[in-house]
Structures are given as C-alpha cells and as structure tokens.
Amino acid sequence: MEIKSTDRDDFKRVYDENYHLLIQVIMHIVYNIEIAEDLTQETFERFYVKNMTFPSEDDAKYWLIRVAKNLALNHVRRNKREIEIVEKARHNPSSSVEMRDAAQVAVEADERRAVRNAIESLPENLRLVIQLKEYSGLDYKAIAKVLGISETNVKVRVYRARKKLEEALSTEDRDVY
Amino acid sequence: MCIDSQMLSAYLDGELPEPYRTQVEEHLEHCAACRKHLDDMRALERRIQSSEFPEEQLMRNKDRIFSLLDKKYFQNGNKVSFIRRRLEISLPSLITAAAAVVFIFIGGFMFFGTSSEQTEDILPSFALQADSANVHYVSDTAGLESYTLEEILQYLDSKGYNVDISIKGLQPLETTQSTEVVE
Questions:
Q1: Between A and B, how many CB-CB pairs are < 8 A?
Q2: Where in chain A is the domain with CATH 1.10.1740.10?
Q3: Who among A20, A44, A162 is closest to B9 (CB)?
Q4: Does any CB of chain B come closer than 8 Å to the CB of residue A107?
Q5: By the 8 A CB rule, do A89 and A64 touch?
Q6: d(CA A83, CA A91)
Q7: Which residue among A34, A79, A143, A160 is buried most deeply as judged by most CB within 10 Å?
Q8: Cα Rg of chain A, angstroms
Q9: pLDDT exceeds cutoff 70 at A123
Q10: Under a CB-based contact definition with an 8 Å cutoff, are residues B34 and A156 in contact?
Q11: Is the pLDDT of residue B76 over 70?
C-alpha cells in the first residue's frame, strides 16, 4: 500500500509502527534518551517535510531507519567530547532512571556495560549490522536495504561481528574472575 | 565434516536457504560439537539482546512527540501539501510564462543588438546613470569589524546621530546624569 508522508493517517500509522524501532536504533548509537528522542522527532520531521510517496510501508521504514541511523552517527561524530562528559554523569548512580533493588541494578548495569563496550569496540561496519540484527529484529534483506549492501555481505558481517563479540566478552569474563 | 561457522550463524538467524538448512539440521542431530557451537552462539545472542533498553524508557515520550508533530504539521492547514498542490496546477502555465519571457528577451536583443550605445534604446533612463563615474562600490573587502567601536561612534557622532550604548543586563546607575549629557 502506498504511503504518502504528508497524509495524516499515513503519517500516524508509520509513526506508531516505527517509533519504537527508530528510537531503539538511535539509542544504541547515542546512548542517551533525551538525544534519542530529539533525533527520533527530527527523523519524522524530515519524513514529513520531504513530502514523499513510498510504494510500501516497508520502503518508508527502510528510509526512516536510514535517516535515523545517519542522524545519530552524525550526532556522535559531531559531539564526541560532549558525549563523554554526559557519559560520566550518567554512570553516576544518582542519575539512573528508577532505583529498583540496588544490587540487581548494579549487576544489570555491569552486564549492560560489558555488552555495550564489546559492541562499541567493533568497527562501524560490523557494529551497525549486528545492532540492526539483534535490537531491531530486521532480517538480512531489510538490513541490506537499509545499509545499501548485499544480503551476502550482511550475512558475513553478522557472523564476523558475532565472532568478535564472543572474543571480547569472553576475555572480559576472564578479567573479572 | 563439521558445519562452517558462518553457515551456522545464518542458520541461527533463520536465514539459511534450502537445501542447506535440512543438511545442517541433519548434521546437528549427530554432532555434539556443532550443537555446542550453536548453543554458544544462541547464548551470546541472548546476552547481547538482554542489554536492550527498557521499554518504558524508550516509549515514555512517544505520544507527546506525536502530538507535537501533529500540531506543527497537520493542524496548521496542511501547509506543505497546499503549496505543492498549487504549484502542480500552475506548472504548465508557469512554463509557458517562462518561455514567453525568454522569447521576448532574446527577441529584444535580436532587434536592438547588444552594443552598449544601444542600451539607451532599451532602457534610456538606466543608460544615463550607468556611467562608470556614477558607480560606486559600496562594499569593501574590509567589513565593519576593521573599525573600533570608538571610531564607529565618532563617525556616527560626526553625522549628527545621538547614540546611547548600554550593556545587556546592566542598569545605568544614575539616569539624571545621562540626560544632562544629552542636553
């Protein structure tokens, strides 16, 4: 079904359908919820302002992910230093979102940081592919469309990313124990 | 022979086409090493996915942002599409008008030629003034920043302007004194 980005019904449907996906993708690049929300909003604004007609909902989705990803990457490149400061503040427990059982939160945070560090240590071409695969639920074909590479290439990159992550995470375990 | 890891990775993602998929499944049934390998991959995948961000954090402002966009773009008379629709309708006539302008322009030069003396025939009032003696370059390469504030003030003063300068956020101490100076 055709999607017109300036039609309110189409816009609303695409928004409801993709908000979670986009903020997820952006969040895994910028790691800050306020910035992720801003960039998600900007992605949808561009969608509207471009005033485009997409042949299908999937095409609109791929376009949106591509824009969201680029906005997030640009943001990170532009604000490297600033992000590091925010990052330091974020690791401060007083600013964490909701305090459940403190020990539980600490363990979860450690695990999350370990995985996140491992993912961040990947080169960008592998990192994006594995993030789209594991966090966005996209199949190889969709990832290929978003990134403009072949499906075979996606397959290879997913595999390489997994191999590297396995190494990174297992050496980290050895450091801990 | 055991399964290539890359194939196993694609199998895990459900992206391995037939007949390879059946072959892999058959092999897995009797090869403990490959089963272990696949389980490890699965565990890794779970571990990566478990570091997802909590749902309620990601979605907390979804409705707010939508109503913001809704207000900005859809409750404002649908601006963009309105302009676009207008343009689409007038496009053929726009092209006709543009063609007419070009035609007249070229025609003008064909009849009158392009030599400078004949500018007078086309635009007599302009030709009189467009003499090199009358043309002054108003902009210099150096901008206002090459003058100090004092020089600018002196210049304005010499032209008879009365300039009051204040600094943002600072209140003048005595207003009576400043009126005296003006007088």
A1: 99
A2: 1-95
A3: A162
A4: no
A5: no
A6: 12
A7: A143
A8: 18
A9: yes
A10: no
A11: no
Residue spans of the domains in chain B: they are: 5-58, 90-122
**Peptide bond just before B19 cis, omega within 30 deg:** yes
Report, at the CATH architecture level, how domain A99-177 is classified: Orthogonal Bundle (1.10)
Report the length, in residues, of chain A. 177
CA distance B85 to B98: 20
Q: Do B10 and A49 touch (CB under 8 A)?
A: no
Q: How far is A61 from chain B (nearest CA, A)?
A: 17
Domain A1-95 has CATH 2.40.30.10: no
Task: Give the tens place of pLDDT for each residue, A50-102.
Answer: 888 889 888 889 999 999 999 998 998 887 766 566 666 666 554 444 455 66
Q: Hey, what are B34's tokens? A: 């490959």
Chain A residues in contact with B50 (beta carbon < 8 A): 111, 115
